[in-house]
Amino acid sequence: MASGASPSSSATRSDPHKHSTTSQAEKRAPASKEVAAVIDSLKKKLAADRCISIKKRIDENKKNVRGITQSTMRSCMERGGGCYKDGSDLLVKRQRDSPGMKSGVNASDADKSNNHSSFLEDGNASSTTMVQGSSVPVKISLRPIKMPDVKRLSPYTTWVFLDRNQRMTEDQSVVGRRRIYYDQTGGEALICSDSEEEAIDEEDEKRAFLEPEDFIIRMTLDQLGLSDSVLEELANFLSRSSSEIKVSATFPCLFLARYEVLMKEKEVSESGDNQAESSLLNKDMDGALDSFDNLFCRRCLVFDCRLHGCSQDLIFPAEKPAPWTPPVDENLTCGANCYKTLLKSNRIPANGTTEDKTGTSSDGAGTKTTSKFSGKLNRKKTKTFPSESASSNEKCTPETSDSENGVQQDTNPEKVSSLSKVKASGRRGGRKRNNNRVAERVSRRTQKRQKKSEASDTDSIATGSRSASDAKHKDNEDATSSSQKHVKSGSSKNSRKNDTPVDDSKNSVKGDDPVSQLNAVASEPCSDGSLRKEEFVGENVCPGGLSEDKSWRPLEKSLFQKGVEIFGMNSCMIARNLLCGLKSCWEVFQYMTCSENKASFFGGDALNPDGSSKFDINGNMTNNQVRRRSRFLRRRGKVRRLKYTWKSAAYHSIRKRSTDKKDQPCRQFNPCNCKTACGKECTCLLNGTCCEKYCGCPKSCKNRFRGCHCAKSQCRSRQCPCFAADRECDPDVCRNCWVIGGDGTLGVPSQRGDNYECRNMKLLLKQQQRFVLDAYRKGDKLKFANHSPEPNCYAKVIMVAGDHRVGIFAKERILAGEELFYDYRYEPDRAPAWARKPEASGSKKDENVTPSVGRPKKVA
Amino acid sequence: MSKITLGNESLVGSLTPSNKKSYKLTNKIQEGKTPLYSVAFNFIDARYFTCFVSAGGNGINLYNCLEDGSISLLYAFADEDKEEEFNTASWACGVEGNPFVVAGGEKGIIRVIDVNNEKIHKSLVGHGDLVNEIRTQPLKPQLVLSASKDESVRLWNVETGICILIFAGSGGHRNEVISVDFHPSDKHRFVSCGMDTTIKIWSMKEFWTYVEKSFTWKDDPSKFPTKFVELPVFTASVHTDFVDCNRWVGDFILSKSDEILLWEPILKENSPGEGTSDVLLRYPIPNCNLWFIKFSCDLSLNYLSIGNEEGKIYVWDLKSCPPVLVTVLSHNQSKSVIRQTAMSTDGNTILAASEDGTIWRWDAINKEQAVTVEAQPPPILHQYRRREGKSQLK
């Protein structure tokens, strides 16, 4: 019987479709009838399959349930048995002793007997029980056992401290939950949802074919072949079954496409697929960054910020900070694969003079840094063969200067190269000292050279900066060491001439490096070659480098670019922070050095290893990117922004209202995107807000709030510009008041603490009593602070990092453990009884007795 | 979510009763004038399988069902506070097997009654609003879960009076929680549902050490390190309206909104929080649009019984597929809403707690005795009526 019922139930479901499809089929073409029949049969088959599968699953579950319930039963029995030993179980005794109550309901005529004679007489919660037998009333009175009163908690929703509660939470978004709003004018119920989002979802849903739909499409087309009428019919059928009303013209195409996809899938599944894993890494970083740009709030530094919303305008500061250099000892290696270690291990330790050491180090590095020289060689080539120099134009000067360096150095290390053979035997030196000395030497040498031949302006600048960096921060040497190596490279090239065998052996040691192997091969045949050989090597290296590039996926490449932007030429930092798990420091280093010669890689700019010029280049580079990305976003952003409107609406709409009013002190700050000092068209200026640190404009912008110059913890009067402007002091802007490490005594640090505790409160209040803060759903712990006409705290709206927030500040000295009160500032006429001033309401102190009813708005 | 997609249809039960089993009215007790919201048989201890507890108003009453159809009153408890209005009661037991009755209601205070000592064992304070349902862990009957209007579910140890875990927060319910149920075999898992139309499956596996700790806790219960569980294992939206009762059937879940669905949660093994729900069977219940009408099953999950707004009781066969309505119990005096039914362990007795303060007892009759229960034709589904809160119906 069960099987009989199941088709019927499925039939009822499918009936409407069947009729509709057939009736329409008749109207159309004779062929469509056939199609409909096929579809119907398929559909029935599906339904039957489903029925069977349900049954199977239910049966399986039934077995499962039986096992479970039996074990439950067993445990019940055991529990009962365990206590039988003492017959003193009161409940058992009662069970035995209590007289039964038999109502007048007669078992035989349950339906007819309509006077039930047994009632518990006491209407009030059964304080006595009266029982009647079938005819004779038997009254047993059981005095109810009193349960002592326990005071109830005041009604609250369970408050959990969540990170989300810290920010303004998006109000109750739950899957499948709909919000119903009542249109105030029309009295019509509106179902409000993220319309844009939902529409998109539905679209997706429509497109996403379910397995059974696929089945129908496939089978129908397989059986009937491809034809327009079949497709149309399919479209008709499927659109109906998924309760879509209109059959759009595109549907048949859609199915056709789907069919093709299905067939392809079949093939793929037959052939087997295994490219799934690398798909992630093949994604472009722009794509990844797009979501980052859209979701990451640059003001709160959180993803999916509830306060500022998604897809904010991207503001790129006009002033680019210098690449960050870590305060790490330059000689610390970042791991087993650190380029420093590897460089070192390949280096043959020297026992000669410092000069010798440099020579050796450079020749040791020679193999690894071939790519580097090759860069120089390339440049040299471009110099010598202008036809090839099309690649670089504006950056030509630094390059040439560099190559000149190389040339000049060529003269220097001739003796070094001669010595290098001797050194090849093997020396070991403190890497640290070595590096340092190398750096010093290089700078010295360059300075010497400077004196000798004032080669060109750019050259001198480059060297100057180099020496300066050397002198100033030793840390920087990490970054600049690469550049020094470049300088060295010239010499190493020379040395290579002499000791190719050594190189070879070294190369064989690190056989995993294709570049070096290539080099080795290349260098062998022409061991006697001088400049010609170098060129040859250079040419050879290039393909090698390219082949290496191929193993770099686009994502890795762009990550590397970003890394250079952030850390400069510091392969350790880049590898550790951006390419962790993807590339080793050594690989990054190689890529870095190799990529320099590929002018195209950096958009026509060969990266000058020199610190100062790099900065410029980076500036250019990022600017390019900025432009690109912002355009990219503008395209996408429009849709996105619409999507998020209502979620943040609660906040923004009120914000907007407040900003509509002129002369409103609470204006929403939105960072401007001015590239130069803000002029009249600056959005901040037009909006009437100051430029903040989030703006793109340079620090010298006149519209910026300058912060205060107060001494520490003196920002407590209107003399402090921050205080006067109702702003919280900002360590990025103010000068002195933020002396590092508040000791927690008084003044700013503790104040800041206060603010931050309550920063989460959804703020909408301001002096004119125009705005109201309702912390029913949102807010942090301080929302539980109670009202008092004589409060010990006061609320104040201050500007914190571009946002208005409510701070609760102490009015007087508050001891630990004391309850905090502040004045809710109810309007006199709207204040609930407990919030009225004592003189206004006759009975004071009643606020402790009666809990508040409802939740009147607090007015600040 | 409730949209039926092709190939994922569920089988709907027909409302024609099969009368495979029939029941007759054997007793009716008028407990008081206040509405009764809960009635529950003891499923914990085989000795007390015939005992049941009723909750309503400020009273908790314990009864015994006798063989001959009569009912004996065993205990009566009343809260001193007349404001209290119990919504739910459940059986539990202490570590020594001594029976407890755990009840909660309007005040949000959960009362643990030590039946043998005729006194309050503990009063569990913590919920910020009224308690809608209390359920006992069948494998460890010292643990109870309470579902509250304060949007949280709490796990308590009634023996020590400790609030072990609170299930609320970012992944929690967004409106009052109406029903909870422990998984019958997996002691870490339970399901909860509520006004926010969602059904959530939670796991306390990671927090099980705290559960164990709660048994040996000697200090003040308020000092126990109660933990918050914020993320459920799975959130399902199989209903479009409030969900006011849910029960596990093996690994499937029965949940009740305007109809009862049997569905399977299909969790993805390696990505917690994700999964799909597959609705398999539908049990239509006419005139059941009020919220807080709860169904019950017998211990071996053969039958399900549920009352409706008109005082009728629908008994469904849970073993059959597609669903088969066993019978409809109705009586010309039973006119008010039946908030909760209780089936005895063997499914032969059905109790109905009615809003007019009566408890109805129906007993199964042998086949030979034919159909004395008038099997009325199922009423046509009325137009969707705006539901009223139970308070409005008082």
From TrEMBL, chain A:
Chain spans, region Disordered: 1-34, 95-133, 349-526, 833-860
Compositionally biased intervals (Polar residues): 124-133, 359-373, 384-419, 458-468
Highest taxon listed in the record's lineage: Eukaryota
Domain SET: from-to ranges: 706-825
Biased composition (Basic and acidic residues): 496-513, 833-848
Keyword annotations: Methyltransferase, S-adenosyl-L-methionine, Transcription, Transcription regulation, Transferase
Reactions listed under catalytic activity: L-lysyl(27)-[histone H3] + 3 S-adenosyl-L-methionine = N(6),N(6),N(6)-trimethyl-L-lysyl(27)-[histone H3] + 3 S-adenosyl-L-homocysteine + 3 H(+)
Ranges of biased composition (kind: Basic residues): 424-435
Domain CXC positions: 655-754
Biased composition (Low complexity): 1-13, 481-493
A Pfam family recorded for this sequence: SET
Protein name per its UniProtKB record: [Histone H3]-lysine(27) N-trimethyltransferase
Protein's organism: Brassica rapa subsp. trilocularis
Highest classification ranks of the organism: Eukaryota, Viridiplantae, Streptophyta, Embryophyta, Tracheophyta
Automatic annotation (TrEMBL), chain B:
Keyword match Repeat: yes
KW Iron (keyword) present: no
WD repeats: 124-166, 170-205, 331-372
InterPro entries, per database record: PcG_WD-repeat, WD40/YVTN_repeat-like_dom_sf, WD40_PAC1, WD40_repeat_CS, WD40_repeat_dom_sf, WD40_rpt
One of the Pfam families matching this protein, by short name: WD40
Keyword terms, alphabetized: Repeat, Transcription, Transcription regulation, WD repeat
Family: Belongs to the WD repeat ESC family.
Protein name listed in UniProt: Anaphase-promoting complex subunit 4 WD40 domain-containing protein
Organism: Brassica rapa subsp. trilocularis
